[in-house]
Design a protein that fits this description.
The chain has 377 residues and is an alpha/beta fold. Helix content is 36%, strand content 19%. The chain has 2 domains: 230 residues, Thiolase/Chalcone synthase (Peroxisomal Thiolase, Chain A, domain 1); 122 residues, Peroxisomal Thiolase, Chain A, domain 1 (3-Layer(aba) Sandwich), CATH 3.40.47. It is globular, with a radius of gyration of 20 Å. The N terminus is likely disordered.
């Protein structure tokens, strides 16, 4: 189904954030997550002995107490992998907060979900049984969840979302890439609303892979990330449609930009020029200067060279007068979903009036750099 294109003169890459969702060890709802984050709480903790099992990494921000109930009935939850459970709950929260009626036009809403790890848990369990027991014993319910697009697909099935359905696996900046895709879907008329965010799960085998490629901070490496898990989502709506239905927006997406450099897939590329292109590009797309930004959500995640490069570029762009900082990854670790957490935090800060405009930086391994500007609506 084709929906009306934006009115003449409307700038692409915009939309209203009308709902948020969050499932994380720092809060099982967006309100709780933002409250605890703002108060300085952190979900990063030492790995337990049964979690660590020889890893040189020492800390994690996992959610061991998570249960899919009461939101997902037990029978249904057994068919969903952990990442899909996270995503379904977070997306349902965003839809509910926005007061959005999916049943009025199932094809008007789509979903763009970033991830770095979705499917990893189901795949390792499926292969464990397959190889150690027999093909006949391999759990059939696990198989549909062994792919990265399982969370977006399972969520669209459960919520009856029939619009664009995209999964983006671009490591750390995947959530902002999902936001970029969503804004383009709105601008092109492919959808009137998009659930945009990211989801990740933590499990030992996924952590072991990251540990072996030297990505995790720990006993042997002072520079590196601490892994987290959870799902974070915003509902981005076409502004004209949102206003027409009487939605109460939390924030407006004012600008978004991307830059890149050639790099090995799991290596960070601390390129100041690329960082500057992303940051300045987002400001230019929003039509504002650095002095208009009063909240900054840094990409800083413990990778020393990247963190220094970001700090240097921000100091130059803002002439040493940096805006107030809200460091999400210090509290929940790094993952593709962390960018979604930054978007949720920025939207809620703008909605409560503690900022007028927020800059979100999200830079990842593989030479991917994104930045976005959100403003009060």
């Amino acid at each position: 189904m084709t929906h009306p294109a934006p009115s003449p003169g409307a700038r692409p890459g915009r939309g209203l954030v009308t709902g948020t969702g969050a499932v994380s060890p720092l809060g099982r709802s967006p309100g709780e997550f933002y409250r605890r984050l703002s108060s300085g709480e952190r979900a990063v903790r030492p790995l337990a002995a049964d979690e660590r099992r020889g890893l040189q990494a020492t800390h994690v921000a996992s959610f061991p107490a998570f249960s899919p109930q009461p939101e997902i009935p037990a029978m249904k939850a057994r068919r969903l992998d952990r990442g899909s459970q996270f995503a379904l709950i977070a997306c349902a929260q965003a839809v509910a907060e926005a007061g959005y009626r999916i049943d009025e036009d199932h094809e008007a809403i789509g979903i763009a979900m970033g991830t770095g790890s979705a499917g990893a848990g189901a795949l390792t369990e499926f292969l464990r049984v397959l190889f150690l027991e027999s093909p006949e014993a391999a759990p059939p319910f696990h198989f549909p969840n062994t792919v990265a697009n399982a969370p977006a697909s399972q969520t669209s099935i459960e919520l009856k979302i029939y619009g664009p359905n995209v999964t983006i696996t671009q490591k750390d900046p995947s959530a902002l890439n999902a936001l970029l895709f969503s804004s383009l879907a709105l601008a092109s008329g492919r959808a009137r609303a998009m659930l945009a965010g990211a989801v990740d799960e933590w499990n030992f085998f996924y952590a072991m892979g990251f540990d072996r490629v030297g990505a995790l901070r720990g006993e042997k490496r002072a520079s590196g990330i601490v892994q987290g898990e959870g799902a974070f989502v915003v509902l981005l709506e076409d502004e004209e449609s949102a206003r027409a239905r009487g939605a109460r927006p939390l924030a407006r997406l004012a600008g978004i930009a991307t830059a890149g450099v050639a790099s090995e897939p799991y290596r960070f590329a601390p390129d100041p020029a690329a960082i500057a292109r992303a940051v300045r590009g987002a400001l230019d797309d929003a039509g504002v200067g650095p002095d208009a930004i009063d909240l900054w959500l840094p990409s800083r995640d413990g990778v020393a060279d990247m963190d220094r490069a970001e700090a240097a570029v921000m100091g130059e762009v803002f002439s040493g007068r940096l805006p107030r900082e809200l460091a999400v990854k210090d509290a929940i670790g790094e993952m593709a979903a962390a960018g979604g957490a930054q978007l949720v935090a920025a939207a809620r800060a703008l909605a409560e009036g503690s900022a007028r405009r927020a800059l979100v930086n999200s830079f990842g391994a593989g030479g991917n750099f994104l930045a976005a500007v959100l403003e009060a609506a």
